[in-house]
Write a structure and sequence with these properties.
The complex is a heterodimer. By secondary structure, chain A is mainly α. Chain A is built from 32 helices and six strands. Among the domains of chain A are: about 140 residues, no CATH class; about 45 residues, no CATH class; about 100 residues, no CATH class; about 100 residues, no CATH class. Chain B is of the alpha/beta class. Helices cover about 35% and strands about 15% of the residues of chain B. The chains are: A mainly alpha, B alpha/beta.
């Protein structure tokens, strides 16, 4: 084939993809220019995305001395041409900005073609109109502390169940949408159960909820679920991603570590509903709280600081220790920015931030808070139990577990060590690192916080405890918004600010800014009470809508920005496993303890290892350890559990605040062939066969346990026919082969052919799209 | 110049073609069924990049990357340094060493004695390329190769250096090269993944590999590298359970599709339709993968070409043969890793077996592609993550020494699609410590690979958390000198 012919064929194949992208690109480019142009909503996104890389906060990369994010600079006479101005309010035709973006002369055009950036006609029109209307600048919305807005009025007053709904409905009414009906009871129960405890509802729960006709039936269920200890496990999974928790050190040899007691603490704290400010303060600075020697909770506070030692730690002989020590501090600093402030601090690691008003100096001022940990870049190479935690560390004795740290599930009397935080007696000096390189120190800096967010109060101590106080200062514009948004994302599929890790200039604007502010202020006013927040979410009419999407809604709001339906998406990897184990009755609900090694395809660790350390070979567990919740599967960072990765779990390398949600053939293969799913199918089938009931009752029950609703007649017909056919086709030999999966015993007195036939039916039910989807 | 005009014309035509075609056709749902999950991403960027379509006419369609994990010593393979033998045992001059930072393994060494190679070199081919006696098969095909002796990198430890070469960043969580290409060029074969990974190891000092090296990073996980391994499950979970044949699987899937269809009718969610398609793709993969993995039908000539190891699953030779088959079947990026090249000590012994592991099969792969007419459209790359020091790590004796990590220069070779054959590019100084001519930075190398595949590295971008990311981060120049 000639090159050109090949090229055309590539294009034809790819055309489908292109059409796709035409359909999905938001309608904004065709949208009309509003009567009143808003700086924050219309202009700043354009400037930030297309102009600020060269005319923004980064002093070293600033062209022509011009800064367009700063009105003073933009209105001033130009450095190169004092008779001209970048912007003259009210006069686009005399404003160089407008002239340069609209010129046909490619030598003058901005952004220059070489930048690969281009303004659309609409964007040029917006800037023109904005200048005409007076070129008014506003502070970036996220850096202004939220005020609690009034709850808006709506036309359809019957619909809202709490404040959330007024905000959501008002938007819908403006845009001409109306909400879906409430979801049917079975689907609603499954949804709220998956969201609150990460497990499907039991038959008993389903029956009692269906039978309960009282007006507060749903609220009773919600309250029960919030009290269930599985709630702490469910909510912890998000936190473990954020805290990049894993069971290995990462890097070259990727040796084992025992950081799991910290994970047990997270579950415990969430179940106790520890207020969010305290929850985070302990993790950031539990070692620095006053009266530590006398405090009965000191050990617990110290354990909480394991949070900031979850990062990867090298055991590769021959590294330069300082290079790695700096990388640990960097990891903590970047996490602090992404997880708590929702800003992309890491961009200022090597240079001033290109978009947000955040200098490299400020990066290292913040860095200084984390720079005095009593640690080294490499403490030991891969080895025995003494390397399972790195200094500073705490020892957890059996006595501690009996008296204070009662939530730790310590199964034996072995020495147990956990990496935690403590600072040196004298603070380390912190320097700006030129280009971010560890051995290029520049100016010395003192601990401080970025002033554009909130100046550091002089009465706060200049250490991590002071930093935590600053974070939870009621005037901090970001902390509450960022967390409320992360939680919203957990329950509604995406955040009110879609870029949950970036509230800065380059982040997406909130779809419902007033709602976000209302929730953030309300959250602070009520003592950072997480269970209360979560209950507000799930009690709302917005949450309770059905997930049906009409072609009209799909066409007009494909991304469901206006929440005129409930979102549908596959549940997290851990909960896929939990659903399978729980519905089949295999789940061992023990909370906490060392991570476990369930079935895993052979050779994965062995094929990728350096050959050193406890984790060089995968020694599978047996018995109860095979049936623990997904969050307890051991995470070896360099080879994370495959069925988890396939379902988009984080590899825990760095802080993550949002998982991708994908839909791939490998996911289909897991559900079809993973021994975990096959074994569960067999065990559930065996249990049903031993019950004194007819075949259709058995199939119906399996369906209810797995999909969490009664099957329709059509569904029953398909599944029953499938069963009958299988029953005829299978013989003893093929049946026995099918049944030989998993270690859970097969009851001896059972008919093998019937069992295999029913197992196939159950396996089909596990593979339904709806089964692992929040619907 | 002519080439640029051609490229410009193609890129113009592409725009026009798309804009006219898109008016006439219009089923969004159809697209989402055929290409998974595009609803969640893939908007055309203002830079004019549309996932799945190259920027200009590609020279190569596919890549096979033979990664030599652990960093092979260039002084024992391709970078002939007679001067080192002359200076055997002498201290490396401080003027040569400059301010190069050293790893913790040699930083405290009192002495840095230069170590001449124990192995002899000869010249081969029309270009007179020097190749050591450890690589007799490769020596025979030098006229098909472009040997680059002037590669350099920034990292001095394995993990960051590997990660840098594969993802453009020393820290993790960025998409790797194969994922970028899958994202950039899309799928050629609907029954196999775009990006596959094959692992093997020699007996030399080993360093681990990590799944982040074939990570999709922030791209859709459809672009993630899929590991193919030896044994009964070449792809994870691909084998149906014992006691179930293909017909029975088909019947089960038909029932499943019917049930999922009911759900689609009720909910109207395009993700359900996509799920039905994913199960179909999974079913096809179940047939396609074992077929492509089956080496039993390879002719005697092929077995002879690759060497008898090619019939032993999991060896480098078998992986090379498999790489050819996958590539031939349209897999966009086949990534091999062969572990065991980290010769800090005992180098003369260990490197012989490492070289023996890979020499014949690497050369066979190039020859095999060529005889099938596929070399023109396939880019083959051979090399590690950095080089090794010209001085000895640990004690230098007459017949034994080691070499530490060295980022300032190393040798790789490239062959096939768009590469100038029979070229030796770049040079190092006479002791092989610094680059003397035509340095090629890792980002230059990456930019060149993308270019050969028809992608402009400055335009192959993905916006994530407010920043536009590239494989080449913020630098990189296409090395036009090595292109045909």
């Amino acid at each position: 084939m000639t090159k050109n012919a090949f090229y055309i064929s590539v294009m034809v194949v790819a055309l489908i993809g292109y059409l796709q992208s035409c359909g999905s690109s938001s309608s904004t480019s065709q949208e009309e220019i509003p009567d009143k142009v808003s700086y924050n909503f219309d202009i700043r996104p354009i400037l930030s995305d297309k102009c600020l890389a060269c005319h923004g906060p980064d002093a070293n990369k600033r062209e022509a001395g011009l800064r367009l994010d700063d009105p003073e600079s933009a209105f001033k006479a130009l450095k190169d041409n004092p008779s001209a101005h970048a912007i003259i309010a009210g006069e686009p035709q005399r404003s160089e900005v407008f002239l340069r973006i609209s010129t046909k002369d490619t030598n003058k055009l901005m952004p220059p073609p070489s930048s690969n950036l281009k303004l659309s006609a609409r964007e040029i029109g917006l800037i023109e109109k904005w200048i005409k209307q007076g070129a008014k600048y506003e502070k970036h919305w996220a850096f202004v502390a939220p005020q609690k807005p009034a709850v808006p009025e709506v036309k359809n007053e019957d619909w809202p169940k709490n404040e959330i709904d007024f905000f959501v409905l008002q938007k819908q009414e403006q845009k001409g949408f109306s909400p879906n009906e409430e979801a049917d009871k079975e689907r609603l129960l499954k949804r709220v159960s998956l969201d609150l405890v990460g497990l499907p509802p039991t038959l008993k729960m389903m029956d009692s909820f269906l039978a309960d006709k009282s007006p507060n039936a749903y609220e009773k269920v919600v309250d029960e679920l919030l009290k269930n200890p599985a709630y702490g496990e469910k909510m912890a999974v998000y936190w473990l991603d954020l805290a990049r928790y894993a069971d290995s050190h990462g890097y070259q040899d990727d040796g084992y570590r025992t950081q799991w007691p910290w994970r047990d603490w997270v579950i415990h704290a969430l179940n106790k509903n520890m207020p969010y400010d305290k929850f985070v303060t302990w993790q950031l600075a539990g070692d620095l709280l006053p009266n530590r020697d006398k405090s009965p909770t000191y050990k617990e506070q110290l354990l909480a600081t394991g949070f900031n030692r979850n990062h990867k730690i090298t055991e590769e002989g021959g590294v330069i220790p300082e290079e790695y020590r700096i990388s640990y501090v960097t990891d903590r600093n970047d996490l602090f920015g992404k997880a708590f402030l929702g800003v992309t601090l890491e961009c200022a690691h090597c240079h001033d931030h290109k978009y947000d008003p955040f200098s490299q100096k400020e990066y290292y001022q913040l860095f200084a808070f984390f720079n005095s940990v009593n640690e080294v870049g490499i403490e030991s190479v891969i080895g025995g139990p003494e390397t399972y935690a790195k200094k500073p560390l705490m020892e957890i004795s059996n006595e501690d577990v009996k008296n204070i740290l009662t939530f730790i599930n310590k199964p034996d009397t072995n020495r147990l060590i956990v990496s935690v935080m403590t600072d040196l007696d004298t603070m380390r000096k912190t320097h700006i690192l030129r280009r971010g390189v560890y051995d290029a120190p520049g100016e010395e800096v003192q601990p401080n916080t970025p002033s554009f967010i909130l100046p550091f109060d002089k009465k706060y101590p200049k250490n991590r405890l002071g930093l935590a106080k600053w974070l939870f200062d009621r005037k901090n514009p970001l902390t509450a918004r960022v967390f409320v948004n992360q939680m919203w994302q957990e329950f509604f599929g995406k955040g009110i600010v879609k870029t949950s890790g970036d509230f800065g200039m380059q982040g997406e604007l909130p779809s419902h800014p007033e709602l976000l502010d209302w929730l953030a202020v309300d959250f602070m006013e009520h003592g950072w009470n997480l269970k209360r927040l979560v209950k507000q979410f799930v009690m709302s009419a917005t949450y309770r809508q059905s997930a049906v999407v009409t072609p009209e809604k799909l066409a007009t709001d494909p991304d469901n920005i206006y929440l005129a339906r409930a979102p549908r998406y596959h549940i997290n990897a851990e909960f896929v496993r939990d659903l399978v184990l729980s519905s089949s009755g295999l789940l061992v609900p023990t909370i906490g303890g060392p991570s476990v090694k369930p079935y895993q395809p052979p050779g994965l660790w062995e094929g990728a290892t350096s050959g050193r350390g406890l984790l060089s070979m995968y020694v599978q567990d047996h018995g109860a350890s095979l049936y623990r919740r997904g969050m307890y599967t051991l995470i070896k960072r360099t080879v994370p559990p495959p069925s988890m990765s396939i379902f988009d779990a984080s590899n825990r390398d760095l802080c993550e605040v949002k998982r991708l949600k994908t839909n791939t053939p490998l996911q289909a293969l897991v559900m079809l062939n993973d021994p975990t799913v096959l074994e569960a199918s067999r065990v559930l089938a065996a249990k049903l066969l031993q019950e004194n009931s007819g075949v259709s009752d058995k199939i119906q029950k399996a369906f209810r346990l797995v999909v969490c609703r009664k099957p329709t007649d059509k569904e029953m017909t398909i599944l029953s026919n499938f069963y009958e056919k299988e029953l005829k086709k299978l013989n003893k030999t093929s049946a026995e082969k099918l049944l030989a999966v998993g270690e859970y015993p097969v009851p001896t007195q059972i008919d093998k052919v019937s069992l295999a036939a029913l197992m196939k039916v159950v396996n089909t039910i596990y593979n339904l799209e709806e089964t692992i989807t929040k619907t | 110049m002519e080439k640029e005009i051609l490229e410009h014309g193609l890129s113009f035509n592409r725009r026009r073609f798309l804009s006219t075609m898109s008016l006439g056709l219009g089923s969004v749902a159809l697209g989402s069924l055929m290409i998974p999950n595009l609803l969640n991403g893939g908007d055309m960027d203002e830079a004019g990049f549309t996932p799945g379509i190259p920027h200009f006419a590609p020279k190569a369609k596919r890549v096979i990357y033979l990664f030599q994990n652990g960093a092979p010593s260039q002084m024992e393979l391709f970078d002939y340094k007679p001067k080192l033998r002359e200076m055997m045992g002498q201290e490396i001059p401080p003027s040569v060493r400059g301010n190069q930072r050293l790893t913790g393994m040699t930083a405290n060494q009192a002495s840095f004695p230069l170590a001449g190679s124990f192995v002899d070199f000869k010249q081969y081919g029309q270009a007179g390329a020097w190749v050591s006696d450890l690589m007799p098969y490769t020596a025979k095909i030098v006229d098909d190769l472009c040997i680059i002796k002037s590669m350099y990198t920034e990292a001095i430890n394995h993990d960051p250096a590997l990660t840098f070469l594969q993802t453009g960043s020393q820290q993790g969580n960025r998409p790797s090269m194969g994922a970028w290409l899958s994202y950039g060029l899309g799928n050629e074969n609907k029954n196999l993944p775009d990006f596959t990974v094959l692992l093997s190891r020699g007996i030399g000092n080993g360093q681990g590999v990590y799944s982040k090296l074939w990570s999709n990073g922030f791209l859709d996980s459809i672009h993630q590298g899929v590991q193919f391994s030896k044994g009964e499950d070449p792809v994870l979970y691909i084998r149906d359970p014992e006691g179930m044949n293909r017909k029975e699987r088909r019947e089960m899937l038909d029932n499943l599709a019917e049930l999922n269809q009911l759900s689609y009718e009720q909910f109207g969610d395009p993700e359900i339709a996509a799920k039905i398609k994913q199960y179909e793709m999974a079913y096809r993969m179940q047939t396609a993968v074992p077929e492509v993995m089956d080496l039993s039908k390879e002719s005697d000539d092929i077995v002879k070409l690759y060497g008898p190891d090619c019939l032993v699953p999991g060896t480098y030779a078998a992986n090379c043969l498999l790489a050819r088959k996958l590539s031939e079947n349209g897999v966009r990026f086949v990534q091999l890793y062969h572990q065991g090249w980290d010769q800090h000590g005992n180098l003369p012994f260990e490197i012989q077996s490492q070289a023996k592991d890979v020499d014949q099969a690497s050369a066979a792969l190039v020859t095999d592609l060529k005889q099938r007419g596929l070399l023109d459209e396939t880019l083959v790359i051979w090399g590690g993550e950095f080089g090794r020091t010209s001085y000895s790590q640990g004690k230098l004796t007459k017949d034994n020494y080691g070499r530490d990590h060295h980022p300032r220069c190393f040798t790789i070779w490239m062959a096939g699609g768009g590469i100038k054959p029979g070229l030796v590019y770049g040079d190092t100084d006479e002791v092989g410590y610094n680059i003397a001519r035509n340095p090629v930075h890792v980002h230059d190398f990456q930019a060149t690979v993308l270019h050969l595949l028809g992608l402009n590295h400055e335009k192959l971008i993905f916006k994530h958390l407010g920043r536009r990311y590239r494989l080449t981060d913020v630098s990189g120049k296409v090395v036009r000198d090595i292109m045909s």
